[in-house]
Amino acid sequence: MLTPSKNYTRILEIDRLSIYNGFSMFLSHRENWIKNFSNLYKMEVRNGLVKLMDDLSKLINDYFAENAYENYLKFPASKLANETIFKYYEVINESLDEEKNLVKETDFAKLDNEVLIPFIKTVIDFRKKPEGYDRRLEPLVELISNIRKQISLIKQKSLEFATMVENQYIDLMIDRDEKSYFTVLSEIHSILDEELENITIVEKVD
Questions:
Q1: Which among 7, 38, 150, 180 is placed 20 to 30 Å from 79, CA to CA?
Q2: Is the pLDDT of residue 67 over 70?
Q3: Which residues, including other chains, have CB under 8 Å from residue 20's CB and lie 6 or more apart?
């Protein structure tokens, strides 16, 4: 009996999802590289933020040791440190449920806009009035600047990853100047389907 080629049959069975999965696997090394890159910098950002909270707490403790209990948070630097810690945990708590379990990724962009940038701007204002300016704020500004650079890199790589996925989808599924892979395979599917319909099946008689 004459039967369609197994290779032809396999092509006829290809659907849209299979095509996408195939190309995703082919390019997975690039996607994984970007994900690993982002995860590495997320970990560095988290470590940097933990250090920042520790250093801010140390600054507050220094003011507590140097001044009377009722006055230690009235100084510009200690007040800023205390407010920054409070704002930080406000943002962090948005990622936790009522039982303090992590339910979503920390919003680094919000931390940057509502915690890190305001700290730097406030310190810049302090510098304009050098009387009583606490130079212990300087290493904190340097640390925050490094954290912000890492957040910026995460944002950049996330945009690159999103653009890459979008371009893959367009190449696979959408016709532009050239036919998409899906269109080409659909045409092959139709041609093979027509040709296979013309094949005469002959049964072997014993």
A1: 150
A2: yes
A3: 169, 172, 173
